[in-house]
Design goal:
alpha+beta; Chemotaxis protein chec; eight-stranded antiparallel beta sheet; 16 strands; elongated
Length: 381
């Protein structure tokens, strides 16, 4: 209460405390950046949908690689400041840098916990995933890099379908960075405020954790704009027509550089022929063809495509009645004699023949003959 116009000590303390509290809260509100401050609700939903589609397909790829059930949940979008990275990553993590080379221009960073990366590496190397060693060797990092390479390749393919244009990435770079010691922090974007996309990653009963994607705000907005404002069919047709015109012009210029050849045929009997002007055929010099880097990289990516190899011992045909009469102990006679070479198929296409061998109590096949290229082409028709 006031006494002769003066405030009591308790009132003074209450006012001081209230001023300090309000001042602190205002200061905190001024420095805190919410995701709504940099992205609209529509942009947040669009960015989440991009991550949901691309990494939903990546989960299938990772599941095939690890022979484990993999689940990647719908992402959570938020912001993070540069000065908050040390609190977000108090311990060393595994970072994977992915750079987009076609369709988009930008770099984003994926962050995994070291123990999660160790489990993925162990599974990639044929282990059971039950490891507690977080010290990753070069071999372990290479295994994680290959897993992320396969995942991001699948994600880029999904994004190409979503954005109706070609989306390509460079091979991911992997590193161990420690925000506390500023080790390998050059891979973190320099922006003061970054977008953080957090996915919940579940791998069987081994991993139930988060994988985070950190990307600059302009790059995030660029992807959102590509989803919300896709190119029209007219623009796509115009681009394709322009490319075709450029190729035709290039071919004409190449043909024009070849000199004309004057051919004078010999006299046949008493008949004579006037000299004829014959243009030389124009062929591309394949030795000098210099493919763009992204096309070379696309060819290299084909080397990782899994193929199904099947060894066929023999075949036979039976009626439905014969099949229904089969029981345990029934003998089915095949169309090949004992000792004849077996057929080796790749994706149900015959490519070679071989002989059956036994290696460490397991069956194997020694290739004895490769089907010629002409025969393989005939079988493809």
């Amino acid at each position: 209460m006031m006494n002769d116009g003066m405030l009591s000590q308790d009132e003074i303390n209450a006012l001081l405390n209230g001023t300090d509290d309000s001042g602190l809260s205002n200061s905190s509100d001024d420095t805190k950046t919410e995701v709504e401050d940099v992205l609209s609700d529509v942009e947040i939903d669009a960015l989440g949908e991009i991550g949901n589609i691309s990494f939903g397909s990546s989960a299938t790829t990772l599941s095939t690689l690890l022979s484990q059930k993999v689940e990647i949940t719908t992402p959570t979008i938020s912001t993070i400041k540069q000065n908050e990275l040390a609190d977000e990553f108090p311990k060393p993590h595994v970072g994977v840098e992915v750079q987009y080379t076609d369709g988009f221009e930008g770099v984003n960073l994926f962050v995994l916990k070291s123990n999660d990366a160790a489990i993925i590496a162990d599974l990639m190397l044929g282990g059971d995933g039950h490891t507690t060693n977080e010290d990753l060797s070069d071999i372990h990092l290479s295994a994680v890099q290959e897993a992320m390479n396969q995942m991001m390749g699948t994600a880029a393919t999904s994004m190409s379908t979503v954005f109706h244009k070609r989306v390509d990435i460079s091979p991911p770079s992997i590193m161990i960075f420690d925000v506390q010691t500023e080790k390998n922090n050059q891979y973190i974007p320099d922006d003061d405020v970054l977008i953080k996309v957090s996915f919940q990653l579940k791998i069987g009963e081994l991993i139930d954790s988060n994988i985070m994607q950190i990307l600059p705000i302009p790059f995030a907005k660029n992807m959102v704009d590509g989803l919300l404002n896709p190119p029209t069919n007219n623009e796509s047709q115009t681009t394709e027509t322009s490319n075709q015109s450029s190729n035709i012009q290039h071919t004409n210029e190449a043909s024009a550089t070849n000199s004309d050849i004057q051919v004078k045929p010999k006299h046949l009997g008493e008949s004579t022929h006037e000299s004829a002007t014959v243009h030389s055929a124009s062929f591309s010099n394949f030795e000098q063809v210099d493919l763009p880097k992204h096309e070379k990289r696309n060819l290299d990516m084909l080397l990782d495509i899994p193929l199904q190899v099947t060894v066929e011992l023999g075949r036979t045909s039976h009626t439905v009645k014969d099949i229904l009469e089969l029981s345990s102990g029934s003998i089915i006679e095949l169309d090949k004699l004992a000792g004849e070479p077996v057929d080796i198929h790749v994706n149900n296409k015959l490519i070679a023949q071989g002989e059956v061998v036994v290696i460490d109590e397991n069956f194997g096949v020694r290739v004895t003959d490769i089907v010629s290229q002409s025969d393989r082409l005939k079988k493809l028709k």
